[in-house]
Amino acid sequence: MQKKNEIIDLPYINYSIDKQATLDILRKANAESSPEQDIHNQYFIPDTRSPSIAYPSDSLSLTLSRKKAVERVISLLPDLAIDHYCRPDGKYDVTFDYNNLRKLGLNLLGVTAYGILNGGSATSYIDDKRNSSYLPPLFSILGKSYQENAGYCIDKPKALVPAYVNPDGSPGFSFIELKMRALLLLMLEAEKHTGKKIRIPIFEMRNPSTANSLESAYKSFSSSPLLIDLIERIGFDITNVQSETQPLLAALTHKEVGFPRKVFTEAYGKRDALLPLPGGHGQNFSVLRPVYEKLFSNGYYLSTLVNIDNLGNVPDPVHLALTVLNGSQASFEFSRKTPVDVKGGILVEHAASGRFVCADIGAAIPVSSVNEAEKLGKEILFNCASGIFDLRYLTKSLDAIIENLPVRISEQDKDAGKYAQAEQITWEVLEMIPHPLILAVEKPKRFLAAKMLSEMLLTSRADEIAPQLLSHDRSYKDFCNLSLAMQRGLHYLLEHTYGMRLSEGKWVPEPLEL
Questions:
Q1: How many CB atoms lie within 10 A of CB 504?
Q2: How many CB atoms neighbour CB 26 within 10 A?
Q3: Domains of the chain
């Protein structure tokens, strides 16, 4: 364990590095890792026919005992007449079909909050080196379009960059504006069904470098063409976002320096110079603790938690209903792994405990094991960075989660020098959930992530770009077919989830019905 003065006495330059958070993460990093540690043989790809994995679709139905259904729903919605949402199935059971699951979920929206893990600025999103290595021919095909759209992203938080490109080439609305519109439309639908006022508050974890930009943007959104009519119609200011700022941590020493690790103090070759870095979205459990507790005390029992850069992760009422009826403390979205899903976590099973785990490819399970499983035709489920938490469980379990969420170390060799970055991954909390539910969703409708600008442009313009990629190399056929499916998914979401329509080459908000 490091002594306090090893960090406290170091100069912090002009960066807001959190000293205590750095000490805590350093302690955990040294407690959990050693040069001999090998975790690659702990996990295996599970059978995806497990009863703990649900495949939401129009044909889905759920049968369980009426007693359990009543107990689980009434604990959240004491005035709900549950028999209106299911049919008797035998002497003791009831069955909920897809339509009634959705109707039940519309009621549950009234006790649900929407949590966003906001990233930092869009610097890596528009990094030329990163984008050009994604799919080399794509970068040259995009050409001027890439440069023009990169210009819209400079010095902006990821939440505020265009989430898509219109057919006429102009930038679309931002990720966060679209999310706000979708939530307002869901509130409107839920109010029509329940006859009650439904309010879905947004909360977020911010990065220190983006807090001011986000605050300024939210103030301007009250006059956004996407939101103004809905805010007035519903009487709820969706732009009033509850926020907490994620602290920056100091980089740690590279493994070549030896163990235990210490604080890296030679950034850019300077003496006593620290390097500020984010500590991963897994810090949300400590950073957002006061928000979780406040929401729970105000009568919100469920909370989604999502990454900002995915247009598919708007709350699905069916998913809320499935989570509650299954008696799960949390549910997590995964989709069938595709060729573009190379960085992130997959669903695995712990060899010793039998628990489901979200294991990062490379860090927790070797790439070779994943490739071998794919060659054997195994279905691999890739993490969508979207979940639903029961706040009754979460608020009671935060201490244990904060203490036990693993620290993942990545060795870096960059302009700042050789150092190590310590991060915590939100979705590794899956292993700690007593009874999790895995939601195996359709990627084109639920997982339209955009980690790079070139990826977003390809999804938006696949019908134009895919033929050019194919003419360059026929081996890109599967990749191009996937891109076209993702574009169809984008159009579906813009029309149905976000209430938009195409007009003269642009997606514009559909006028509200009177």
A1: 8
A2: 24
A3: 5-450 (3.90.550.10)
